[in-house]
TrEMBL record:
This is L-lysine 2,3-aminomutase. PROSITE patterns: RADICAL_SAM (PS51918). Keywords: 4Fe-4S, Iron, Iron-sulfur, Isomerase, Metal-binding, Pyridoxal phosphate, S-adenosyl-L-methionine. It comes from Chromatocurvus halotolerans. InterPro entries: Aldolase_TIM, EpmB, Lys_aminomutase/Glu_NH3_mut, rSAM, rSAM_sf. The lineage of its organism: Bacteria, Pseudomonadati, Pseudomonadota, Gammaproteobacteria, Cellvibrionales.
């Protein structure tokens, strides 16, 4: 681990970039040099889940390409409006019994999720939490204390997973206070952060953030979320480098998405780009069956074939585990094919 510098000029630019995210189809079309009519934007889909795209992410899209794989992930499109049986607002069972106190989602043994922030830097159209009642999980100071008390009372919990929304939308002082509270719980040994922010706004990885999330005695693991090799440019690699230098273990999870990354070549290039940035491919998820996202689904048979092709092309550490999450199950279900066939 190296010493973390006190300040850089980029320390708060990420907050401005959050505020400046593109929300209108006209602006998105203009940024890409496209006629607005070519975008396929749907106001109905946007009403259901508002479009939001940071400019740093738009900058990695191919100008003039209405089918750009990064654009497809963020555009509120008409395909979202068609009803599909089996697709629901809560596809993995995060409300009810799994939500014992506000801000806590406790489904698996030994670990639980804290929803630290109610928003994200980007609104991914396939997100399984696109209908999650974040408003009911905004923590007051009292509820925050209740959530920490819940963790303290259950000595089986060794890992706390910060999720959201995107937990890195939270300010550094908020994250630092949370880390202080968790560090005071003797049985919590690992902090895991699931985030897309270092990918969509790499400037989020500031010295202030590193000071907030790195503590002696607690291992910090960050699971990035990127789906396509074009997402991983030099700015993302530099952000990953800053995290690694601070001692953060970096993994990546993807979602298998039709029209985005449903080819072995794309998955192979994604793994290569991630590895080059010091990030290990960890999971590739089958799409959670959330209402509005059915057009992204890749069926299980095809998903197994893709991961099998990837295993033939690449070293084992380039091959993420293929998983599906189902409501009520004690862990994710692994679907990675076994070799040889
Ligand atoms: S960043 Fe993650 S939680 Fe936020 S919308 Fe995208 S997939 Fe969902």
């Amino acid at each position: 681990m190296t010493l973390i510098p006190l300040q850089t000029k980029a320390d708060d630019s990420w907050q401005q970039q959050l505020r400046d995210a593109i929300r209108s189809p006209a602006e998105l079309a203009a940024a890409l040099g496209l006629e607005p009519s070519r975008l396929g934007f749907s106001a109905q889909a946007d009403d259901d889940f508002a479009m939001k795209v940071p400019r740093a992410f738009v900058g990695r899209m191919q100008p003039g390409d209405a089918d750009d794989p990064l654009l497809r992930q963020v555009l509120a499109g008409s395909a979202e409006n068609a009803p599909h049986p089996g697709y629901s607002d809560d596809p993995v069972g995060e409300t009810g019994a799994a939500n014992p106190v506000p801000g806590i989602i406790h489904k698996y043994h030994g670990r639980l999720l804290m929803t630290v922030a109610s928003g994200c830097a980007v609104n991914c159209r396939y997100c399984f939490r696109r209908h999650f009642p974040y408003g009911e999980n905004q923590l007051s100071r009292r509820e925050w204390q209740d959530a920490i008390a819940y963790i303290r009372a259950d000595t089986s919990i060794t890992e706390v997973i910060l999720s959201g929304g995107d937990p890195l939308v939270a300010r550094d002082d908020t994250l630092s206070a949370l880390m202080d509270a968790l560090a005071a719980v003797p049985h919590v040994t690992t902090l895991r952060i699931h985030t897309r922010l270092p990918v969509v706004i790499p400037d989020r990885v500031t010295p202030g953030l590193l000071r907030a999330i790195c503590r002696p005695g607690i291992a910090t693991v960050m699971v990035l979320h990127s789906n396509h090799p074009n997402e991983v440019d030099t700015t993302v690699a530099a952000a990953a480098g800053r995290l690694r230098e601070a001692g953060v273990t970096l993994l990546n999870q993807s979602v298998l998405l039709t029209g985005v990354n449903d080819s072995a070549d794309t998955l192979s290039r994604l793994s290569s780009a991630l590895f080059g940035a010091g990030v290990l491919p960890y999971y590739v998820h089958l799409l959670d069956r959330v209402r509005g996202a059915a057009h992204f689904a890749v069926d299980e048979t095809r998903a197994r074939e893709l991961v099998g092709e990837l295993a033939v092309r690449c070293p084992g550490y380039f091959v993420p585990r293929l998983v599906r999450e189902s409501s009520g199950e004690g862990s994710k279900r692994e679907l990675t094919p076994r070799y040889p066939y």
